[in-house]
Design goal:
It contains 12 helices and 12 strands. It is of the alpha/beta class. Strand 2 and strand 3 form a beta hairpin.
Length: 418
Amino acid sequence: MITIVLVVIAVLLPLLFWSRLGGPAMVRAAGRLVMVLFAQATAVLVVFVAVNNANGLYDNWDDLLGTSNHVDRAADLGPNGTGNKPISSLPKVIQKFEKVDDSDLGSGLVRTELKGAISGVQGEVYVWLPPQYNDPAYRTKKFPVVEVLSGFPGSSKNWFRTLKFQKKVGPLIESGEVAPFILVSPRTMLGDKDTGYANIPGKVNADSWLTVDVRKMVADNFRVSLSPENWAIAGYSAGAHGAAKLALAHPDRFSAAVSFSGYSDPAAEHGSLTATDPKLRRENNVLNILKSAKTPPRVSLLVTGEGWDGYQQGLALQRVAKPPTRIDLRATTGGHVTPVWIRQLPYAFQWLTQRMHLADQGTGNQGTGNQGTANAGAASAGTGNQGTANAGAEKRGTGRQGTAHPDDQAAGGTRLLE
């Protein structure tokens, strides 16, 4: 609305006052210059708003200017992120939800404001309920959940407004090709810097916000189990880094994850809180998390991307993965852009349905047909040289993917072309 008003003013000012300005020539020239500069600034603002709305970068001016604060406190919560409290012992969190009445976001969405009792984070959480949730035939069923993360900057609305989840995946859920997932999209912009999805005492407990507070709130308010077998996490860009990192670090909370064009080294997002400190950078490197795990995490991870924009990082993870960890790769083309991620949605949720074994766990899903991942013999792959991923700063961009290897399946997963 503010932008529209400014555009009207920018048009009317010269029309009404250009030839009516009085005073000396210098004063008239200065007045006209101000009108021209105001019109140019307004034009730049219009372009910025259009780009922002198309990509869902900022929800409001506070997010843009970094004046919003969603961190109430950031205590040291220890290695488990709960302050050594069992999640099952935490008190119930009963929330009020409001229906989201916004045609741009699609149907089925509800929203709540959550104050994280453990993390000290406050923010909105969007929840999408599949059509089956209110079907009497499912009244005793517990539903699987996918927590979804946006890039940075990014909005908690993006999976519904920008990625158009309901349009791309909704019909597959209705037909039974995809399990009736509940989608949970919490706020991930908690300040003016990327949190790196980490717990950093004194600054932010983003990890506990996403893996403890949000999960428990969802389980306390919907027909959802906290069992990791029924939880997955997915993201794109910076959110892809977060999804892979949180799943591999917390196999007690997630059994599967999807990474669209993600990275392993936090330094790929230069402003990240975990990129500026060498210790935090090492500890939050996805490859390092997998390498240093005392026992291989029981997690399936789907990595999609092009060259150094996700795919090579996935290859590095696949090389070090040991059962029961599984890394599946899917090469894409088209770059680090929203349309590429939108195209991956149907496959990703079919993959989640099969990897989480939801077709036969009583969710009411009738199966996914032959939508699972291909075996090593059936996988198609591009040509070129693979190279090795670097555990240090990673290159962002495009590259060439290698040919499928007969040992792909044993190495930890599959490699597929889009």
